[in-house]
Amino acid sequence: MPTSMPSPSIRIPVELLTQSSFSQFGTVIENPAHSNAPLSQRLPPPAAVSANQGTAIKFIDVTHMLNIYSLAPSKKPARAVMNMFVCAPRDLRPHEPSSSMPSSWGDIDLDDDDDDDGNSDRELFDVPVLERHPFTTQTFVPMGLSQSDRHTQYLVIVAPTLPASASRRHTDRPPPYPTPEIRKERSIKDIFARARPSPFTNEAAPPPSQFSRLNPSQRPKGPGLPDLKNMRAFVATGNQAVTYGAGTWHAPMAVIGDRPIDFVVVQFANGVSIEDCQEIILKPDPKADEGMVVMVDSDSSGKVLVKAGVGSVKAKL
Ligand SMILES: NC(=O)N[C@@H](O)C(=O)O
Q1: Can you give the pLDDT at residue 206?
Q2: Distance between CA atoms of 173 and 179, rounded to whole angstroms?
Q3: Residue 175 — pLDDT band, cuts 50, 70, 90?
Q4: Mind listing the domains of the chain with CATH numbers?
Q5: Could you read off the pLDDT of 194-251 as tens digits, one per residue?
Q6: 303: which of 99, 127, 150, 212 fits an S-S bond (Cβ 3.0–4.6 Å)?
Q7: Separation of 138 CA from ligand 1 center, angstroms?
C-alpha cells in the first residue's frame, strides 16, 4: 500500500519552465537557440562542438543521468531503460472560488480568472499523488510536439523534499526510503580516515562525500516527504525535455490540451518496485476545501498562461 500524508489546501500558479527556475529539481533539456527564458534568466549554454562534418552542433552532456542503485537495500543492479509513456490529456475541473491558501510562488489573486483582455480562462488540476525514484534520474522526452503547439502542452509539477526530522511529524511510520548500506565492520584505519585533521595526511577539510562531486541540484534529495507548501508547477513546450533529479518528488506527467503526448522516458531500473518508484497519496484535511491544486489559466486558443515567476507578466508562451 502506498503511504499517504495529510495535505493542506493550496492553489499553485503555473510558471515558465526554464533551467534557472527548475534547477533545484533537475534539468531542462532544450536547444539554447530556442529557449523561452528571458535573456536575463538564461544560464550559460552547455559546451558545444561541431560534429557530423560540420553540419551539426553537438551540445555536450545536456543532462546528467545518475544511477545510485548501489545504495539500494536489495543491491540488485539496475540497467538503463527506455520506456514510452503515452500520456492522455488530464481532466481539469472548472474554477471556483476557494478558501485554499495561495502558493508562495507568485503574487496571485485566487479569484481572478480573467486576463487584461477578459478572455483567459481558469481551470483547476487536482494533484492527488506524488512519486519519486530515489536511485535514478528520470528524463521525459516529448515526441511529435512543436514549440509553437498551442493546443497541447505539459505541466511539470514538483516539490522539494522536507528534512527527515520534519517528515516524522507527518506520518506514523517513516516513508519507505531505502537507506544506504551501513558498514558494520569498520577498521581502525576507516575510523581515523574521517578524523580531521587527518592523522595520515594532516588534511583539515572534511573528506568528500560520495555525492560531493555532483552539482548540488543533482545530489539525491534525502528520505523526507514532499514539502507541499513549496510545490511548484511549470508549463513546458514541445521543444523541452525534462530530467527529474534522483529522489525528486513529482506528480505523474500532466498533459494539458487536446491530444496525448508520447514521451520517451530514460532512467535506470532494477525491477524492485519499491526501489524503482515510490508513491505518496496526498490526503486533504477533511475540514479543508480541497488539497493541492494547480491553477491552469489559458488564453482563447487554449495556450497555458504563465502566472508566476519568470516571464509571468501575463506572458503567453
Ligand atoms: N512521471 C510520471 O509520469 N511517471 C513516472 O515517473 C513513473 O515512473 O511512473
Answers
A1: 54
A2: 15
A3: very low
A4: 3-33+58-178+216-298 (2.60.120.480)
A5: 666 666 666 665 555 667 767 777 788 888 999 999 999 999 999 999 999 999 999 9
A6: 150
A7: 8
- How far is Cα 122 from Cα 110, in angstroms, rounded to an integer? 10
Distance CA 183, CA 195 (A): 17
ipTM of predicted assembly, 2 dp: 0.95
Pocket of ligand 1 (CB under 6 A): 131, 138, 250, 252-253, 277
86: its cell numbers: 503515452
Query: What sign has the CA pseudo-torsion 169, 174, 177, 179?
Result: positive
DSSP H helix total and E strand total for the chain: 4, 20
Residue 131 Cα: closest atom of ligand 1: 6
What is the pTM (predicted TM-score) of this model? 0.86
- Which of 136, 141, 242, 250 is the best mutation target for the ligand 1 pocket, counting ligand atoms within 8 Å of the beta carbon and taking the most? 250
Residues 6 or more apart whose CB falls under 8 angstroms from that of 172 comprise none
* Number of C-beta neighbours around residue 310 at 10 A: 19
Question: In the chain, which ranges are E strands?
Answer: 3-7, 10-12, 14-16, 26-29, 48-51, 56-59, 79-87, 93-94, 101-102, 121-127, 129-132, 138-143, 152-159, 232-236, 241-244, 249-250, 254-257, 261-269, 278-284, 292-298
Q: Distance from the CA of 94 to the center of ligand 1, in angstroms?
A: 26
- 112-121, 176-185, 303-312: least confidently modelled range: 176-185
Task: For residue 19, give the amino acid letter.
Answer: Q
